[in-house]
Specification:
heterodimer, A: about 80 residues, mainly alpha, Helix Hairpins, about 0% strand, B: mainly alpha, globular, mitochondrion (chain A), transmembrane helix (chain A)
């Protein structure tokens, strides 16, 4: 099930063709699928699940970087579309 | 770029990311190092050109997606056989910018200044190559890497013929050299590291001259305001990058040929050698002006540090080529 979620997120990342924000959202969707994998599998194995916290903290840093890059793009080009005419 | 405090810190962060991902035991450490490398490389790109958003956004999207894919497939698919393991190889090839996933590398490399281009081509390639070597998952699924070697070699050769931008020429040449580097990597020989080191050295020499002369396009190279000493050094560096003996760049190619001749890899070696000659064509075309035009009546004005750089580069290519044969003669047996 989590494989399906991750693969769908990966496919959505490729099928985005207009806004850059959609690509960022699909990146976060991939991160969410992996976060659920990190949270659920140790729960099933009855072991500790601290790795999900480490994972999510690094993903948040990366998402913040992505957002600031979109802001830089919008400041230069005026919108967050990939192709402008 | 190392002028300011934060520039220095981001550079250290990049190297730390590479270091962490190389030396970690689990896929988590690998992914954390790759993310640190990415997070510190983006401000490094922006420092060169403050309003350049396109290359940084493209680089960020591609690399973030590839590192998520790497982490996910490393954690969940490492116990499966051949076909699934190639997903790890695919994600590492995307991070490298090797064939057939080189389009982002073309777009990003064409928009960067020289120092950022150099670090994109050398430092950012260290950790995916080391991970390709360490993962050792190429036993059952060598098809992916062999196709990358052959396609990379051929595309790197033929793709650069119609290019006028020097950065795109060097991207295509790095595609070709990636093919050469992955030949020893597939058979788990340490020779790929020797080739990578020599490639970094040669690329640094070429980019150094182009950075000093501030050349970004092919038509700028035919101008007579550039001194002929610099153009001659550029010619020698380009010939070394193309792999002419007795210059520095011949030696790693010869080692790869020595290693893989007499084995089943002759097929891909044939494609690599043929495409390497084609890369030599566009290097020669880039440095054509010093071969064809008359510079005898034009005074060359270079500063002392530029003259020193030219002499150093010429010495490294010519003497280094001869010395490396002497040093590694035991290795050749």
């Amino acid at each position: 099930m989590i494989y399906f979620m991750f693969m769908m997120a990966f496919m959505v990342f490729f099928l985005v063709f207009k806004h850059i924000l959609s690509s960022l959202i699909s990146l976060e969707f991939m991160a969410l699928a992996m976060f659920s994998m990190f949270s659920l599998s140790p729960m099933l194995l009855k072991s500790e699940m601290y790795s999900s916290f480490l994972f999510i903290s690094i993903v948040v840093c990366e998402a913040a970087l992505g957002l600031s890059l979109i802001i830089l793009w919008v400041r230069k080009k005026g919108n967050d579309l990939f192709i402008t005419f | 770029m190392l002028n300011s405090f934060w520039g220095f810190m981001f550079f250290i962060g990049m190297l730390s990311g590479v270091w962490i991902s190389i030396h970690s035991n689990s896929w988590f450490g690998v992914w954390a190092g790759l993310e640190l490398n990415l997070i510190c490389f983006i401000p490094f790109i922006i420092q060169g050109d403050t309003m350049c958003s396109e290359p940084s956004v493209k680089y960020f999207l591609v690399q973030a997606c590839a590192s998520f894919l790497l982490f996910f497939s490393g954690v969940s698919m490492v116990n499966y056989t051949g076909m699934m393991k190639s997903l790890i190889t695919v994600s590492l090839l995307v991070k490298l910018g090797a064939a057939p996933f080189y389009f982002w590398y073309l777009w990003v490399g064409n928009s960067l200044k020289w120092i950022q281009f150099l670090s994109l081509s050398t430092i950012q390639k260290i950790s995916p190559l080391v991970l390709l070597f360490y993962s050792g998952l190429n036993k059952g699924s060598e098809v992916m890497i062999y196709s990358s070697i052959i396609v990379g070699g051929v595309v790197g050769g033929i793709g650069g013929i119609n290019e006028a931008s020097l950065r795109k020429l060097l991207v295509y040449s790095s595609l070709n050299h990636m093919g050469w580097m992955m030949m020893p990597l597939v058979v788990e020989n340490e020779l790929w590291l020797v080739y990578f080191f020599f490639y970094c050295l040669m690329l640094m020499m070429v980019v150094w001259i182009l950075y000093l002369l501030k050349l970004y396009y092919l038509n700028q190279m035919f101008s007579v305001s550039i001194s002929w000493v610099a153009k001659l050094t550029l010619l020698v560096s380009f010939l070394s990058l193309g792999g002419l003996p007795p210059l520095l760049g011949f030696f790693p190619k010869f080692m790869v040929i020595e290693m893989s001749s007499g084995s089943l890899m002759l097929f891909s070696l044939f494609f690599l050698i043929m495409s390497s000659v084609v890369t030599l064509f566009y290097y020669l075309r880039a440095s054509l002006s010093v071969l064809m035009l008359d510079h005898s009546k034009i005074k060359s004005n270079l500063t002392f540090s530029e003259k020193f750089s030219m002499i150093l580069i010429m010495a490294m290519t010519i003497i280094g080529g001869v010395m490396s044969v002497l040093f590694f003669q035991s290795f050749l047996q």
